[in-house]
Amino acid sequence: MKKLLVSIITSIIITTAAFALPGFTSFIPDSAGEYVYYRDTSFTRESYIGILGYDDSTIQIRYFAPQDDTAMLPAKEIAILVTVDPKADFWNMTGEKIISTILPDTDDTDIVNYLHDLLYEFSARRISQVAVESGKEIVDQDYAQFGGKVALTFDARIPLFNIRTIADEKGNKVFDCVTIGTIKSSEDKSFEAFKGVSAPKPAVSKETRKATKSKVCKFENHQVTLDEDWEQKMENFWTLGNDSLITMSMLPKVAENQILNDLYVERKLLESTEGSYTDFQNCEITYTQAKDSYKIVSTSYFPESNINVYLTKLLTRNKEGGFDYFSISTYQAAYLKSPSYFDKIVKSYK
């Protein structure tokens, strides 16, 4: 429960020094330490590409492939620290340092060259897009590295180059964002420790949680209906044993432009926190115009314990232009025992 609590508290808005990559200005300014990971299916084995921004002149790009027991392949990692000219209007690389081991007589050198090409291509394609000011902008392009004609999807919520997916002519995603995040300090190893976002799914239990006597819990002008098994820990959060945590709070307006404000908040609430990774591929965001509210449903993977946590976050715009915020986080095993129980709680929020 301690890690679950930390993941929720630190995922609410954290602002760090902003920077811009050469040649374009992002709608959502990138912050030092923000990163993105992609699943790259152009390789014959399971492979991921991660890009981390330190500042406007320093980037790390990392290739990782997990151990493949079937093909008898060991895990592979290649990481490169790259510097660029921040004043240039194109990707002008000024230096590099390979910070992983490169093995002789392997395809490691080819992978290094591939990573170089990705950075050049991503920069050029993002610069040519001029502006990315929404959560979905699809552009048809020719991209030899991914088989020719592709559909490239830009998303302002994705840090750095705003590239979310690359799909081939048949619609198959050959390059797809799997998680985004921010490292919080030099001790935060989330970027270099990434090995994927999947955990074994527990068997669905036939047992169901029986609600005890109900009670209404309030914070400011909102309320949620729980039962006596929930314990109030502070003014604005409640716990259900070690299984689930509810928080209610307020998020301030961060930009006068409402579209920018909302996309920024979505990005921050979907970013991975230290020790966990948000499954960006399967997150769901729905907007209800009548209530001017958002519902964000996502899953976070905790590799240390090899478990998932379900998260539902509700954002309702308030008169100050910010959001009233509700969040419920539940360990996957507990949620799968009684999904209707937890879904009912979400529906009771008002």
Q: How would you sum up this structure in a few lines?
A:
Helices cover 17% and strands 39% of the residues.
Draw up the topology in text.
Blueprint lengths: L1 H8 L8 E2 L10 E2 L2 E7 L7 E8 L2 E8 L10 E9 L8 E6 L9 H22 L7 E7 L4 E7 L8 E5 L5 E10 L31 E6 L2 E6 L3 E4 L2 E4 L3 E8 L6 H13 L6 E2 L5 E5 L4 E10 L4 E11 L5 E9 H6 L1 H10 L2
Antiparallel strand pairs: 1-2, 3-4, 3-11, 4-5, 5-6, 6-7, 8-9, 9-10, 10-11, 12-13, 14-15, 15-16, 16-21, 17-19, 18-19, 19-20, 20-21
| Shape by Cα distribution | globular
Helical residue percent band = 10-25%
Largest sheet: 9 strands, antiparallel
Number of strands: 21
Taking the alpha carbons of the first and last residues, their distance comes to 26 Å
By DSSP (H or I, 4+ residues per run), the number of helices equals 5
Structural class of the secondary elements? alpha+beta
- What order do the helices and strands follow? HEEEEEEEHEEEEEEEEEHEEEEEHH
Strand order of the largest sheet: 7-6-5-4-3-11-10-9-8
Rounded mean pLDDT is: 90
Q: What is the CA-atom radius of gyration, in angstroms? A: 21 Å
What proportion of the residues form beta strands (DSSP E)?
Answer: 35-45%
Spans of at least 5 consecutive residues with low confidence: none
